[in-house]
Amino acid sequence: MLEGTRVTGMATDKVREAMQRAGVDYSIELLPWKRAYLSAQQRPDACVYSTSRTPEREGLFKWVGPTAVAEWVMLARADRKLLLRSLEDARGLRIGTYNGDARDAYLRARGFRVDAAHEDLANAGKLLLDRIDLWAASLRTGTTILTRYGYDKKIVPLLVFNRIEVYLACNPGVPDAVVARLNAAFAAMERDGTARRIERRYENWGGPRRQP
Question: Ranges for the Solute-binding protein family 3/N-terminal domain (predicted)?
Answer without folding.
Answer: 5-202
